[in-house]
Amino acid sequence: MELLVQVAQFIFFKVCDLSAKQEFIDAAKSGKILARQCKKCNDVNLATVYFCRKCGNNQFENIFIDGTGHIETFTIITVPPTGFEKYVPYAWVIMKLNDSKLRISGFMSNVSKPNEIPIGTEVQIYGFDERGVLIKKSKLCY
Amino acid sequence: MQIFDVETVCVLGAGSTKYGKLDDSISDIAVKSSVSAIESANIKPQEIEAGYISNVFGIADKQVHLGPVIMSNLGISEKPSLSIESACGSGSVSLREAFANVAAGFYNAVLVTGVEKVTQTGTEWTTTYFSYCSDFFYEGQAGASFPGLFASMARAYLNEYDATEEDFASVAVKNHNNGLLNPKAHLRKKITIEDVMNSPVVASPLKLYDCCPFSDGASSVILCNEKFAKSHTKDYIKIIGSGRGGSPAALQGRDHMTTIPSTKLAAQSAYKMAGISPKDVDFAEVHDCFTIAEIVDSEDLGFFNKGEAINAIRNKETELRGSIPINPSGGLKSKGHPIGATGVGQAVETFDQLTGNAGERTIKNANIGLTHNFGATGASCAVHIFQSV
Ligand SMILES: [Zn+2]
Predict the structure, then answer these.
(1) Between B90-103 and B342-354, two packed helices, what is the crossing angle to 10 degrees?
(2) Which of the residues B13, B40, B177, B209 has the least number of beta carbons within 10 Å of its own beta carbon?
């Protein structure tokens, strides 16, 4: 019986482990960032975190944050890692979310010059694929 | 923090292979460097009680588990050894573990060897494998190369402070000038600001000459307690401070893009142990994997206030004859960056400087030297402070 409980716990934690990243990916695909809000101190942590960095508590509530924000910094990559040759040049961006203190980094396609996406540019998350989190300029910019 | 000063830890000997594109195998390079440190310390290999080996991509040259191979070729196969991987910071992390064990009295004398052999693999392999040192789910997977991660810091720095891309370039020019005086440096070539500005963009705003090269090479030191050092009639230096720190593995987890938290933590801890402040440091070997990194490092280490490293560079304060010479060896930029060896190589340079054996690049009247080395974008960091005897 004890063994069964251990096996069940093992499977449960395995499933949890897998689902944190998968849920994050699913949320990004619908333009949202999945985060964990600490039930004790309300600090907001990334979805892949297991203990709160502020208070050490491990009880969280999943929250979905709107994936809009602005560019905090970025680079345009011309010498890419394997697999990204066909996307060159592209931008890798760190954005600050509007509705949270969290920052999210991700991939932005078809950017060739820094003045196309100056720091502060309003952007939004719109997907997730083999290039990780996908970011684009917010429609309001056009 | 607890200060492990049971034993005073000394560096009794130091040696390096040349850094660059080397033909020898990874184990041959590591053994050669180890032998040069043993000869420098003027000890018998049998006096070494343990080996601390730092390496990241041994798999690229078909040899992991390097410790026993090195110890066997030194004729001391019975001595324990281990390998330490902490990305580009492996060498200093290994030095720290060796330091802690000698300080705690476990060993009288140990060998610390860092080694890397990757140039046979080509730029694409190295760029890709190095990206595995990032927080891959959030960074490498999204196409962030290492130059790209530091380029993001560089862009933020340009936005926040009165700095230009030419200022970044001048760091490369300075380090190449120093490297010209270092016979073991990888890129021994004088360059100009224009050379840097005209080199191809790798990840804007960083250009090829803002980046350190991929290098092969090995560096070794012999650490021992002071009783052991005194029983050998030979120059030695003391490690008076050792500190470590960590940062969020991904840049997105950090509150500021122009500072590296682990550097600050490691430095505070090392300064406290040494009982000194940044102004007491006579020279420093810092982690300049990219020009922007040296600028950020020199501020995080407390040599300059935030945003003021640029003025110091313009005033030539960090040059070899300046008030606080930075990277007299040529740094990662010119001396080269065999990632598992770099942290140990900085200790070799410091030993050579403080024992007056750095040739033309010797800094006169230097008494205290600092080394700073980190892994990836500074997710892990170690700082050491050395003093001449
Ligand atoms: Zn909390």
Answers:
(1) 60
(2) B177
